[in-house]
Amino acid sequence: QPGCPHLRQFTLAPPAERPLDEPDYFGELRTECPVSKVKLSETKEAWLFTKFDDVKAVLADPRFSSESGRDGFPIEGQPGGLHPVNVGMFIRQDPPFHTKLRRMVVPAFTPKAVADAAEFIEKAIVARLDALAALPQPVDLVEAYAIAIPSDVIARIMGVPASETERFQQLTERLVTITLTPDELDEAMDAFIAFCDEMIALKRAEPGDDLITQLITDRLDTGEIDRDRLLGFIILLVLGGHDTTGGMIALGIFTLLKHPDQLALLRSGQRSWGVAVEEMLRIHSVARSGPRRVASEDLEVNGFQVRAGEGVIPSVLSANHDGEKYGPSRFRDFTIPEERPRHLAFGFGPHQCVGQNLARVEVGVAVERILERYPNMRLVDDRVENVQVRKDRGFWGLRELLVDLGPAAEG
Ligand code: HEM
């Protein structure tokens, strides 16, 4: 459209010397060309939306379809294969079918359900903290802590017995690795599905107070869903909740260790942990590869025309760094605001993250408890420019977070 000739390769790569900032061209586009065509591959292009209000408007409008099978869907560069079981994933479906499926899992993630799970989440985190003390220093907190916690928590919600959580975590790790060959991915998927089938058989024999039992009793046995759909639910929850939450925990710890003045404000009670978590969710936007859509008809977004069949990337990362909405958003400027920032890190509209209440608690408690237990914890390398992000995962996160824990706090 007029005045916007840009056509660039779409990338989420940050500037090399500032690996925790958004790509520089996002800021340029927001001022010069807020909606611009980007190239995803030799043959595929999409509209990149960069301003907060426009991104929110796209996400709010279900006529922007989430069905990845539609022509024009801008799937390139997104994690996850197109295994047949993916048909069960409501993240890739539109209302009203999407709404019907989503409602089946929502009860396990309401604020009340998460409040009921708080005691277990706390215990899972303390157990991981206890285990850290026994490890040789320095410790990599990504593997030993950040990624382990969401895995423990989702395993418990689904009803995976404690004796199987390690196997569950190994199978999950494989499933979320995006550097596998198609054959390896099929193998990983088959191994995960075999595990799920075992769990379904176990829950039939010994029903529990857990999500898999509930879905079997209320949905599978009533004929509302079939086995593939149930597998799709389990896989979606694992894919959606694992590296996102784990990535945020490690980035949260790193962020506060790099900003001791802000950590001091939290410790003295001058700022709240809840607000700090929201600000970290905003600046890091770990699901930045996330929301993609295709226009199901000719549509208009705040005056901008999108034609039926055109792909759209409503960038939550760019929206969350929009200078018209927020103050400075570079990592080096990290400041915990007084008020909770409203952001799009969990998306918006019909597909807004199902697990957001859970993620907030997991990230908040995991980051707060480790900094309480190890008040003198130090980064082995504290140079931001040396930070390595994971290339083997679909969501944003640190490859490792090496720390010297230092002595544990008394009591
Ligand atoms: C959807 C981000 C944690 C399960 C989404 C979406 C975003 C997001 C941006 C919207 C996708 C779209 O519009 O296409 C995050 C972030 C997390 C997180 C940043 C952690 C920091 C979790 C957890 C779970 C979860 C812990 C569950 C255990 C889901 C599911 C959807 C979803 C099932 C699909 C919702 C739908 O299509 O209706 N998430 N997520 N997420 N998330 Fe999360």
TrEMBL record:
Renumbered residue ranges of the record's region Disordered: 1-21
Protein keywords: Heme, Iron, Metal-binding, Monooxygenase, Oxidoreductase
GO molecular function: heme binding; iron ion binding; monooxygenase activity; oxidoreductase activity, acting on paired donors, with incorporation or reduction of molecular oxygen
InterPro entries recorded: Cyt_P450, Cyt_P450_B, Cyt_P450_CS, Cyt_P450_sf
PROSITE patterns, per the entry: CYTOCHROME_P450 (PS00086)
Family: Belongs to the cytochrome P450 family.
Protein name in UniProt: Cytochrome P450
Organism of origin: Nocardioides kongjuensis
Lineage: Bacteria, Bacillati, Actinomycetota, Actinomycetes, Propionibacteriales
